[in-house]
Design goal:
heterodimer, A: about 400 residues, alpha+beta, two-stranded antiparallel ribbon, 11 strands, B: about 100 residues, two-stranded antiparallel sheet, about 20% strand
């Protein structure tokens, strides 16, 4: 595991506005016309900085570019794939553009407006009801209204630096060429991985990990279950159901405490002493709060176990943050005690794992996976042959 | 609301649990009792497990844990009765929209 948090960009809960329910020009809203508080249109530019004059141009690659990609690691796309985008925020401020920004579909050709609002927002499962239907009921009409943006970009709220989330490129679970973790038989995919983001990567890596896991399962024998292990595990899992509510702690109380601890000790600016304080506090929660967590019913039991997982992950994040003794721009990682940014000595994966009760840190070269094409073909020859023959599973 | 007693399922069927509506400062989901037929499809599909069947058959489900709603709208999409369920974002999460600054192109 490597530290993976970034300043929050996107959420569906808490004080966030509904995802894709604020003025933005990404994914389902690409490439919406954006305007500033004065109603002045925000220019789009291609990867070479050439400002585009028409809406149509936003959907074409730059001269000499075969294609472009949107989504995925959208904050920092490679030049090779970078598509048209509104000018960077700093440049807009320099030019006198003023917040708040808005998405103004009314300025777009009718067909594009209908595609974004009617088809994209209107037909995607997560926006159909919460955004399309709900906003329509509230009176939003894309022919006549523009929708406000929050913060400085496409985020679903004006998030604070200490409001962190797992999102985008930095960090993630370490894995081998089969997307297998260091626990035999456990595979990882999607946003858990380093530099993996959004639906395309989730689908591709999920399919790959699933295929490899199936191959693995075919080659191993199921071991005999120990009835004693089953009994002990059931006892552990169900224990919160038999605890006393009056003297215990609810999952909500621990959830909020962990959230506050992480904001205090593992926010936008980190240092050893803060991270150690955070670990100390979480250890106290582990020792004092976890044993008295109670659940009145299976629903609450589910939440209890979610929060216990959150506590484990929070400790992993703190430990992984401690392990990197420098700051990094692409990793969205800032250390006040190690302000040197992206020094060559730390251009590597810094990975932690647990062995017994201690944390083991190791360093892995960035190119540990070798040549992508060559190594992929070496490890997937059977699959490629099946696919070529039209007999893919 | 008083505690409600529910039975466990499967090998847990002999166990009785208590469920209590958890107060929240918001009201994410409302049922129209004139349209809802109490089929409980929304209960089954809710990914956050916040809905419970009514105690009386045919009545709208109970929003037992309103503070845990994810606002995905799955309950509305699954509902066979148009208008039986309405979803409302909390006031502080209602994004602002204003008349467009210029006539459309």
């Amino acid at each position: 595991m490597m530290e993976k948090t970034v300043r929050a960009e996107f959420s569906a809960a808490g004080r966030s506005f509904p995802p894709y329910g604020t003025g933005n020009n990404h994914n389902t809203w690409y490439a919406a016309t954006m305007v500033d508080a004065r109603g002045v249109e925000i220019p789009y530019a291609d990867r070479d900085g050439r400002e585009l004059r028409t809406v149509s141009e936003r959907y074409y690659p730059a001269p000499g570019q075969k294609f472009f990609l949107k989504g995925g690691v959208i904050d920092n796309p490679k030049y090779e794939y970078r598509g048209p985008e509104t000018l960077p925020f700093d440049e807009l401020i320099r030019r006198g553009y003023q917040l708040p920004f808005y998405a103004d579909l009314s300025r777009m050709p009718e067909s594009e407006r209908k595609v974004i609002w009617g088809m994209m927002v209107g037909e995607e499962a997560k926006t159909k009801v919460p955004v399309y239907q709900n906003y329509t009921e509230r009176g939003f009409d894309p022919d006549r209204h523009m929708l406000q943006s929050y913060g400085t970009g496409w985020q679903s709220a004006s998030f604070l630096e200490q409001e962190r989330q797992f999102f985008g490129a930095p960090g993630g679970l370490m894995h081998d060429w089969d997307l297998k973790t260091n626990i035999d038989g456990i595979y990882a995919c999607g946003d858990q991985l380093y530099a993996s983001d959004c639906a395309g990567a989730a689908c591709a890596t999920g399919y790959y990990a699933g295929r490899k896991a199936a191959d693995y399962a075919e080659g191993v024998e199921l071991c005999q279950c120990s009835q004693e292990d089953i009994r002990a595990e059931k006892e552990r899992l169900y224990a919160p159901l038999s605890r006393d509510e009056k003297s215990g702690i609810s999952w909500k109380e621990l959830n909020k405490a962990i959230s506050k601890a992480m904001q205090n000790y593992c926010g936008g600016v980190k240092c050893d002493s803060l991270l150690l304080e955070g670990l100390d506090l979480l250890k106290k929660y582990e020792e004092e709060a976890v044993p008295v967590l109670y659940a009145a019913n299976p629903h609450e039991l589910m939440r209890v176990h979610e929060v216990m997982d959150i506590l484990t992950v929070a400790r992993l994040v703190l430990q992984a943050s401690l392990a990197r003794k420098s700051s990094s721009e692409p990793l969205c990682f800032m250390r006040s005690d190690y302000p040197e940014t992206d020094p060559p000595r730390d251009r590597k994966y810094i990975v932690i794992r647990q062995e017994d009760e201690s944390v083991v840190v190791r360093q892995v070269p960035l190119d540990f996976f070798g040549d992508l094409e060559e190594e992929y073909e070496k490890r997937n020859r059977d699959y490629m042959e099946r696919e070529a023959a039209g007999n893919g599973r | 609301m008083e505690d409600r007693k529910i039975q466990g399922m499967g090998e847990d069927s002999g166990t009785e649990y208590s469920v209590r509506q958890s107060p929240a400062s918001l009201n994410p989901i409302c049922f129209d009792p004139d349209i809802c037929i109490g089929c409980n499809r929304c209960v089954q599909v809710c990914q956050c497990d916040i809905l419970f069947p009514a105690e009386r058959k045919g009545e709208p489900p109970v929003v037992m844990y309103p503070g845990e709603c994810y606002y995905c709208g799955a309950c509305v999409m699954e509902c066979p009765g148009k208008g039986a369920i309405s979803l409302r974002h909390p006031l502080m999460n209602q994004a602002k929209f204003v008349p467009a600054a210029r006539p459309k192109a």
